[in-house]
Amino acid sequence: MNSRPPFPSSPPSQPSPYRYLGRGGGERPVRLQIIIALVAGLIVVAVPLYLWRRPKPESIPSADAATADAGAYAWDAGALADAGAAADEGVTLSPFTTIKCENPGPGTTPPERCDHVTFFEDALARAIRDNVPCAPSGKTSITVSYVLEMDFRRKRTNLYAGKSTTVSRAKTKELIRCVKRAMPTPDWGTIPHQYVKYKINVMATYPANESF
Q1: 37-50 exposure pattern, b = at least 16 Cβ within 10 A, e = fewer
Q2: Which of 61, 77, 118, 154 lies at a CB distance of 3.0 to 4.6 Å from 65, suitable for a disulfide?
Q3: pTM of the predicted protein model
Q4: Integer Cα distance of 162 and 142 in angstroms
Q5: DSSP state of 94
Q6: 81-135 per-position pLDDT tens digit
């Protein structure tokens, strides 16, 4: 019975393959140490750079400064309120009503369908408030019914005291004259409107004069 020849031994010039089995395990910790060193280096460089370039927080105003600002604002608001009360002192105005509006041709427009010409309404209200000293005074309050007619075709207005006025027209002549002079000159071509003619009304109530 023939026996197999023994395995030939590796030549001395070639290292045994079993010698490389442990090399891979030795290189892995080295690579991990290199990565950790790189990350640590980035952190060391980035943190001081961030601390140096980060924006500085603005100083928070003190409670005293905030209180002072609030007091100044309250004073301004109070001054404006006092100024508004002084402008309206001595007269109370009703909402404006439109008596009629019309265009050439047949047919009539119900007053509730008329548009409001705010330019003349605002101008008349301001003129009334600015001319309270021209109003007649007495022991009791008085009411003056202001009627303003506007004609956009002829570019003219007409202001007079209506029938609801509680004093005679003779006593309102100077008041009507003062209010007319205070009305601004209209730029007819720039005032929004839908109709050619308007008639509007506002009631002004003046308080009694305590000196009587």
Answers
A1: eeeeeeeeeeeeee
A2: 61
A3: 0.59
A4: 13
A5: P
A6: 343 443 446 899 999 999 999 999 888 899 999 999 999 999 999 999 999 999 9
